[in-house]
Amino acid sequence: MQFTSERRLDDGVFERHFTLGEIPGILWMPETASASAPVPLILLGHPTLGLGKMYPRLAARARHSAAEGFATATIELPGSGERPSWPALDQARADLRQAMRAGEPVTDEMVDALVLPLVDKAVPEWQAALDAFLSLPEIGGPVAYSGGVISIGIRLAVVEPRIVAAGLFAGSLVPRVMFEEARQVTIPLHVLLQWDDEGNDRQASLDLFDAFGSKEKTLNANMGGHTGVPQSAGDAAAAFFTRHLK
Asked: What is the pLDDT of residue 202?
């Protein structure tokens, strides 16, 4: 991991941009973090829109987490942002959008073609990034995952023992095979669902929540569309991470 820039934000949070091989990313560190007082870490997931477009939302989440004493970090997803294009993923995304615009059904094959290759490639990259983050003396764990493509969060919760809790955003199209993986998830979960999310199959989200094998799992459902998440939902997620990381 090579750090390419660092700046101190006005609230004392240190923002460090880095590359991990060809993968760009950002690490946010609270000013309280030190080698003698290492802090827990939250991995910030995000959709495939690119870090440039997602930066304002990610930075806001990071600053809120830093106020609670947590470091946060994110990496660019395959085929997004400044990373090389991924023609197969671009085609799968275009096929799905065309079907939705035409009012045609979104098939299981469309969802699989879009999501499964992304999960297969992104999860090992997240694990490699986690290796690098935990090698820093200011970060000592435990580790949680927050948001992003829910299928990536599911796979990470199954295969990565260093992740002790996850906050997931319902709304991603979920391949049927991921429901089987969800049954293997055992860590505490906090799932946020917008009841009127225009891009989400509500019943599928409820079925997925039911499939999770975790003994501790909470569904925070709120009225409103995809961008109408209330502040109270963010506060509840923050309390969840505080409970499991401190």
From this structure: 86
Q: Is residue 112 in some structural domain?
A: no
234: which strand partners?
none
- Which pLDDT value is given to residue 161? 97
What is d(CA 207, CA 191) in angstroms, rounded to the nearest whole number?
12
For the domain that residue 182 is a member of, what is the CATH number? Answer: 3.40.50.1820
Indicate the residue type of 161. P
Residue numbers in the chain where pLDDT is lower than 50: none
pLDDT at 246: 87
CA angle in degrees (0–180, nearest 5) for 77-29-226: 45
User: Is residue 94 included in any domain, yes or no?
Assistant: no
- How many domains does the chain divide into? 1
Closest CA to 211 of 223, 203, 199, 201: 203
What is the C-alpha to C-alpha distance for residues 123 and 172, in angstroms, rounded to an integer?
Answer: 16
- Please state the pTM of the whole predicted model: 0.94
Chain position carrying tokens 């979920």:
174
